[in-house]
Structure prediction request, 615 residues.
Amino acid sequence: MVNKLIEISHQLSFNDLEERLLTINASLNNGQAELIVPLVGEFSAGKTTLINALTESKALECASKPTTATIYTIHFASDSCKAIVHNHNGTTCEIPDITKLKNDELKDAVVVDVYDTSRTVPESIVIVDTPGLSSQDIKHRQTLVDFMPQADAILLVSDINQGITRSLADFASTIALSKRPIYLVFSQCDTKSEEDIKRSKEYHLKNTELPLNGVVCISAKSGRIEELSTLLSELQHNKTAILKRVNEERCKAIAKEMISRIDTLLNSSVSDSSTDEAIRQQQSNLNKIKRQISSLSDSISSELNGIQREVSRKFEDKIFESLDSIVAGKSENYDSEAISAINNNASLLLNEYKNQIVDLLGEKIKEFSRKEESLSLEGLQSLDLSQLSISGLSYNINLNEAGHEYDKKIAIGCKVAAVAAAVIATAGAASAAGGAAVAGEAAATGGAALSSGEAILVAADVADTVTDIGSIMANQRHMNRINQAVQFGSQVNEKIGVINDFDASAGQRMGQNKGIVESLVGFVTEKTMGKPQRRRVIHQYIDSSLSPAFAQELRRITIDVNNRISSMLNEMAEAQTSELTASLEALKQARQEQKSAFDEKIKQLKQIKQQLNTL
Prediction:
């Protein structure tokens, strides 16, 4: 059968089908052909831990989160342990030390071939570690879907405490890989009694809707893998029969595809007009698809805008809560904590936004699949959202200084008032009268710089409010007041220097970068002015700047995602019809140029179709 299909595909220039058939033929004729057995399950089901239990290197990294869409193929009974990395750009590199394989460093890898010296698994069986089903990255799931047609048998891995999860059941039922033997592998069996394990096996064999060929139980951590080893030995023993049955199904699927292509060409080949009509029909299909795209784009756009508004509102609520909590508490650096809270909330909500987009596209794909629309949306699964980022948020406030803008001036006023009071207390009766006037004026100024010249000016200003300069000079009593003020200012100036030195050194001893007086003032103003002022600053910043900026960034991202989705849909539509349209145009040209050759071609197509129907 396969040889006949190869001949037909070559005859009709179906090059892609011919290549697939040649691969199948090589497998059938090769006694050393490998049996490809992928492990499929949630990313936390223990697939990598199981592989490490089977190998001698035990070096594959068990990631705590799904980080890569890379496929790992594990080859056993090798002469040495090594890995060969195949990258997207077609390059390869050999890594002698498997412990150097790190998930985060393999984002550009398509496949990693791992070779291990263990003989626990038969040499002709290749175990494949696939991306976890629960990954939110669409590329991971698409990688898994694309790989599955290569599978010859499938091991569904699940924690026995969870049973068959919904995502595992849904995936197994939709991949439609008929004739492949499917086995359920329960991990973490050391957490169950033998009786519980027995009941679990019987239940899943009788009640699951999946066509299971068997259930085995393991505990990779405790080394309990005997049932799996026995199963792999059975697969090795039945390898020839398995490969024959699976490859027959592959050939049948390819034959059906050939018949479909031939029917399309035959139906449009009755006459020039029928060919033209077929081309027009294809154009009509394309226009229909474009209308579907327009309607779908509007629907997706509307729902994306709704998601964007919801996430923007949630950001405003969460950021109010986070920043209000920060300013209500005590902190060494309010601004640093606020910036961290803003970045964390923005990052978390952007990830939530991406996840909602993934869910939305998944629903649209299912919806179109149920309606059997002429447009297939499977290509939307490759939409890459990993580069989306929020970049337009600015931080233009100073929470650390809020409510403390006048601490320094108040501290200076306090020190001046204290020094003035000390001078008054030690001065004579005559000096006390003049000193009190100046002290009062100094305290009232709230901390003007107190050089001796400025203290004299303060006293002079007070005297000048009573009379003019001439009357003062003519009044002996006022002259005495001025002399006393000059002396008082000199005494204040001398003592203020001592107070400032003591204030600074006391602050340093207490670990402050400012004087002890200003620190004490700050303690008082923190209660009366700091927290209320910070709260007002935060609320104004969120309302007038931060929330609008986040919403604007999310709108920008939504527009970009919308445009990319529309572009992808249009590209899929064009690709879906352009190949067939090109074939029809070539058929029309062939008929016009050489009628006899065209007739012979049609005859050949009919004969080939008849042959395919009898295979």
Observations:
- The longest helix spans residues 516-593.
- The CA atoms of residues 116 and 504 lie 70 Å apart.
